[in-house]
TrEMBL record:
<feature type="domain" description="Gfo/Idh/MocA-like oxidoreductase N-terminal">
    <location>
        <begin position="8"/>
        <end position="125"/>
    </location>
</feature>
<dbReference type="Pfam" id="PF22725">
    <property type="entry name" value="GFO_IDH_MocA_C3"/>
</dbReference>
<dbReference type="InterPro" id="IPR036291">
    <property type="entry name" value="NAD(P)-bd_dom_sf"/>
</dbReference>
<dbReference type="GO" id="GO:0000166">
    <property type="term" value="F:nucleotide binding"/>
</dbReference>
<protein>
    <submittedName>
        <fullName>Predicted dehydrogenase</fullName>
    </submittedName>
</protein>
<dbReference type="InterPro" id="IPR055170">
    <property type="entry name" value="GFO_IDH_MocA-like_dom"/>
</dbReference>
<feature type="domain" description="GFO/IDH/MocA-like oxidoreductase">
    <location>
        <begin position="138"/>
        <end position="258"/>
    </location>
</feature>
<dbReference type="InterPro" id="IPR052515">
    <property type="entry name" value="Gfo/Idh/MocA_Oxidoreductase"/>
</dbReference>
<dbReference type="InterPro" id="IPR000683">
    <property type="entry name" value="Gfo/Idh/MocA-like_OxRdtase_N"/>
</dbReference>
<dbReference type="Pfam" id="PF01408">
    <property type="entry name" value="GFO_IDH_MocA"/>
</dbReference>
Length: 347
């Protein structure tokens, strides 16, 4: 039976650095999605945020959960503050759309996914790189089989984050707040996009380190080899120590063509000599300003999540799919620490 289209109500929890593209996206979606309230513990910063984007401030998180017009909670807090927030939303029967990563550890992420599944509420995870026009175009071509068989994968995330103003902030780059370094905080977007196009990685051999450019608890450089379930092999380099930073690049080598995603652009080099370019020039947040990217990718993902909930289906990026990238990151870090080949835990 077709579901009647109606206004979708969202409550927002958290209004820090990551909230800006979400706020811009939600304002662009007015008419189909309405913000019922925003909650943040710091009342001064909450008031400033709500005034900037013309959103109503909620009296408490409990008030948001008690609002029958709230269909879903958009969780934008740091990962160390999420588990109880999501559990409370699930108990209240509210769907959840949440910033990456799911949590700091895979074990905590699994608890969040299970809580939503047991409460029969939808859990979506923000991985906006999937929603770039170039990514969508490539996903369709991969699914159609027109590129041939995947043979090799090359992922480079050559980003920059400064010590001053970024890693000097309390909790940044720590296990206690972030759960890790460049993989779980920055490269997780590219890793998720890669997995959505390639299928699962079965084993990795990696090196991970903290360069002399940063003073931080976790890694700012990871390089490694990857073995894929479909028989392809791949390489990865991810860092926040590449000044001044540049766009991430994912190349997939098929038997019929090589496809390269660089930021928001797709270049296809067909083995018969043809070349195609799809997409638009855009920043990706790889430089000193981590928020230097457009909000239309967030807009597309929020809209897709709302449509999925209203239609009673799963969105494309779920808690379950996010567990795959968490387990890949675990394997890369363990391989770098132990200096050996590590198998990736399967879903």
């Amino acid at each position: 039976m077709a579901h009647e289209q109606r206004v979708f109500g969202i409550g927002v929890v958290g209004a820090g650095m990551a909230a800006k593209p979400h706020a811009l996206a939600l304002n662009a979606l007015k008419g189909s999605i309405v913000v019922r309230g925003v909650w943040r513990r710091n009342r001064t910063e909450l008031a400033q945020f709500c005034e900037t984007y013309d959103f109503p401030a909620a009296d408490s998180y409990e008030a948001l959960l008690a609002d029958p017009a709230v269909d879903a909670i958009l969780v934008l807090t740091p990962p160390n503050a999420r588990e109880e927030i999501v559990a409370a939303a699930a108990r209240a029967g509210k769907h959840v759309l949440m910033e990456k990563p799911v949590e700091r550890t895979t074990e905590a992420a699994e608890r969040i996914v299970a809580a939503c599944k047991n409460a029969d509420v939808t859990l979506g995870i923000i991985f906006q790189h999937r929603f770039r026009a170039a990514s969508i175009a490539l996903a369709k071509m991969v699914a159609s089989g027109e590129l041939g068989t995947l043979c090799a994968v090359h992922l480079v995330v050559p980003w920059w984050r400064a010590q001053q103003g970024y890693y000097d902030k309390p909790g940044r780059g720590t296990f206690a707040q972030d759960g890790g370094g460049v993989l779980i905080t920055q490269a997780i977007h590219s890793l998720d996009l890669m997995l959505s196009l390639t299928g699962p990685v079965t084993a990795v051999t990696a090196l991970s380190a903290t360069t002399r450019l940063h003073q931080m608890e976790t890694e700012d450089f990871v390089a490694g080899g990857m073995e894929f379930a479909n028989g392809a092999v791949g390489s990865l380099v991810a860092t926040t120590a590449n000044y001044p930073g540049s766009a991430e690049s994912l190349t997939l080598n098929f038997t019929g063509a090589s496809a390269t995603l660089t930021g928001g652009n797709l270049t296809l080099n067909w083995l018969d000599g043809r070349t195609e370019t799809i997409g638009e020039a855009s920043n990706s947040g790889g430089g000193a300003d981590p928020m230097a990217f457009p909000f239309d990718w967030h807009q597309a993902q929020i809209a897709e999540f709302a449509a999925a909930v209203l239609a009673g289906r799963q969105p494309s990026s779920t808690g379950h799919t996010a567990l795959a990238v968490h387990r890949l990151i675990d394997a890369l870090i363990r391989s770098g620490r132990e200096g050996k080949r590590v198998e990736v835990q399967s879903l």
